[in-house]
Amino acid sequence: MAGSYEDAVSELLANGPELAVFLRFNLDSITRLAAALGNPERRLLAVLIAGTNGKGSTAATLAGIVQAAGYRTGLYTSPHLLQINERIQINQEPISNAEFAEIYDRVQSASLQLIQRGTLSSHPSFFEMLTAMMFEYFASAGVELAIVEAGMGGTDDATNIVDPILSIITDVDFDHEDYLGKTLREIAAKKSGIIRSNAPVVLLPQHPEVNDTLGNAILEKNARPVSATKHMPPLTPGSHNYFAHKANQVPRAVFPLLFMGKEILVNSPLVGRHQLRNIALAITAAEQLNSCGYKILPTHVEEGTQNTKWPARFQVFLSGADFPEAVLDVAHNPAGAWALRSTLSALYADRLLTLIFGCMRDKHVKEIIQILFPCAERVIVTRADHPRAMPARDIALAAEDMGVMTTTAETVREAVKLARSMPIPGEVLVITGSFPIVKDGLELLR
Questions:
Q1: CA 327 → CA 51, 219, 271, 330, 420, distances in Å?
Q2: Residue pLDDT, tens place only, 196-251
Q3: Cβ–Cβ contacts within 10 Å for residue 79, how many?
Q4: Which of 221, 307, 365, 417 sits 20 to 30 Å CA-CA off 402?
């Protein structure tokens, strides 16, 4: 047994990489572990969210709205940025170190007993353990609604043992193809695994192949599709005006919206056209909760969207005496890169950009380079502190093959130091790529 928080985290990490569970492609392990714990997921009311991009933003926004309505709200997301506790929150407060260690010991004890009895042939994975801990913690802490983000896919994701009262599917695109499939239809089919019979599923129109796949799944399961289009503000060439960005102020998404017949003002920290979709999904889901026994009013939507907490998604740090204005954004796949490029163009069209970038080996590196690197005045590539990280030199060579010259740095700290040693007047520093890169940037800028 772990005993301490530090031991609990160490033992969790020893269970293998986060993606290890998907090598099994089934829910046997998490189902048996949950049963040994008394099936805590059955004592929860939950919203389950799947998609490629936007799951976390949608989950955080919806959690903020539900909390504003006075409900004890659980939020489960992945991966984390600074500390593993971030993944499991109640009312925007991460699980404490002491609670984390206690819940871990409870779940670990059940796991070891299952292995000893031969019920499990191997130890549950890192993600299965954390998911079981989340269900156990939320159920024991009296959470009134759990907002649960699927880790990857949907059908075979450990979170999918819960029976949600409502499902949400965000934008589906290419990512993790080795696990989810090589085509949009295959990927969308995996995401559709969270849809439940006779239950609402909130979604927005997207790629025709995705629409077709999700539509067929909805028909097969006799689910009830709910479109979030009515909570989307008009997207026109001037729609960047929704994003208030005045001098010496952090930008926000601000726009009027009709909710349950009343005009409200959405004022969210999540900026960019892509975030308008995520906000619309969350607001539509909140409206649907009124049919599930909850009471969500327009004032709750205003307060919840305003108080949403979801760092490192086009998070702006204003310039200081010795540091330029900086943007942190997790853009680790082509869709995320396009979203970042669009938002940079909308908010910083008249500014020079210095890009600090690093990513994992299994990502579409060349495509991301083609999307992002031409936007910058200069690019510094670096390596994330992660076993799957792509060496900076390899990223630089890939960029050079496409005619883009870069500078390399061993770490994000060194990359920032290099950028500051050769300042460009009025520049904006953009730190982006995979989560570990943005994590290092966040630690430097906080």
A1: 24, 42, 12, 10, 15
A2: 999 999 999 999 999 999 999 999 999 999 999 999 998 776 666 787 677 788 99
A3: 16
A4: 417
Residue 51 φ then ψ, to 5°: 155, 175
- Distance (Å, whole) CA 196 – CA 65: 23
Q: Which domains does the chain have, with CATH numbers?
A: 5-306 (3.40.1190.10), 315-445 (3.90.190.20)
What's the CA gap between 300 and 291, in Å, rounded?
Answer: 16
- Both structure tokens of 233: 């503000």
| CB atoms inside a 10 Å sphere around CB 116 | 9
pLDDT in tens, 152-191: 989 999 999 999 999 999 999 987 777 789 899 999 999 9
Average pLDDT, the chain: 94
Answer whether 353's CB lies under 8 Å from 376's CB.
Answer: yes
Within 10 angstroms of residue 390's Cβ, the number of other Cβ atoms is 21
Tokens, residue 291 = 């049919």
Of 266, 248, 249, give the one whose Cα is nearest residue 258: 266
- Dihedral (Cα; 336, 250, 358, 77), 10-degree rounding: -60
Point out which residues pair with 46 in neighbouring strands: 146
Q: List, for residues 265-305, the tens digit of each pLDDT value.
A: 999 999 999 999 999 999 999 999 999 999 999 999 999 99
- In this prediction the pTM is 0.95
Residue 62 CA to residue 286 CA, distance in Å, equals 7
Which residues, in sequence order, are bridge partners of residue 168?
49, 202
Q: Helix or strand or coil: residue 27?
A: coil
Helix (H) or strand (E) holding 379: strand 378-381
Neighbours of 361 (CB within 10 A): 13
8 Å CB contact between 401 and 426: no
